[in-house]
Design goal:
By secondary structure, the chain is α/β, with parallel strands linked by helices. It is 52% helix and 11% strand. Strands 3-2-1-4-5 form a 5-stranded parallel sheet, sandwiched between helices. Pathway: tRNA modification; tRNA-queuosine biosynthesis.
């Protein structure tokens, strides 16, 4: 099966990519992350994804559109629900791209993180799959959490310290 793998960052893509390839899937990476703030962080993550893709010979589709204003406009009024918008907006672009490019399915490296809401990601992915006439490939990649960390450190990949948006950065660093 040809699968488009939405990649939020290089370290989170390691285990999903290995798993998908081990299952015999033909995988193409996809980078679209308009939530990442500030721009230097966005650039570091994009560069790390390109570096890792080159290491493992992963074909990539990159939407290098830094649309942070769009993200902030959508979540500023209700930051507590930012993750729902973030999942839906990025997965919608991945689903549309996968359908337009003739993939059989799409999935996301968000499913690797033990900090993300898997049930919501799965439901969002499945709903978008129905809308776009394509499959959403769900797997719980959290079982490889420690392995992914180990490999990313061995490879010297940039490892970020927060999810990506300005609110997650605040949650990570600001301790009142």
């Amino acid at each position: 099966m040809r699968i488009l793998l939405h990649i939020c960052c290089a370290p989170c893509s390691i285990v999903p990519l290995q798993s998908l390839k081990a299952e015999g899937h033909d995988v193409t990476g996809f980078f679209f992350n308009h939530n990442i703030h500030p721009y230097q962080e966005y650039k570091r993550r994009l560069d790390a994804v390109k570096e890792y893709a080159a290491m493992v010979d992963l074909e990539m589709t990159i939407m290098d559109n830094y649309l942070v204003e769009e993200f902030l406009a959508a979540v500023a009024g209700d930051p507590a629900n930012r993750c729902s918008y973030c999942y839906a907006s990025r997965l919608a672009v991945a689903a549309r791209t996968a359908a337009e490019q003739g993939f059989d399915a799409f999935t996301s490296s968000l499913l690797y993180s033990r900090y993300q809401r898997h049930d919501e990601i799965r439901k969002t992915g499945e709903d978008l799959a129905m809308q776009h006439g394509i499959a959403f490939h769900y797997d719980d990649y959290r079982t490889g959490w420690q392995e992914g960390i180990r490999i990313s450190k061995e490879l010297g990949l940039y490892r970020q310290q927060y999810c990506g948006c300005i609110y997650s950065e605040k949650d990570r660093y600001w301790k009142p």
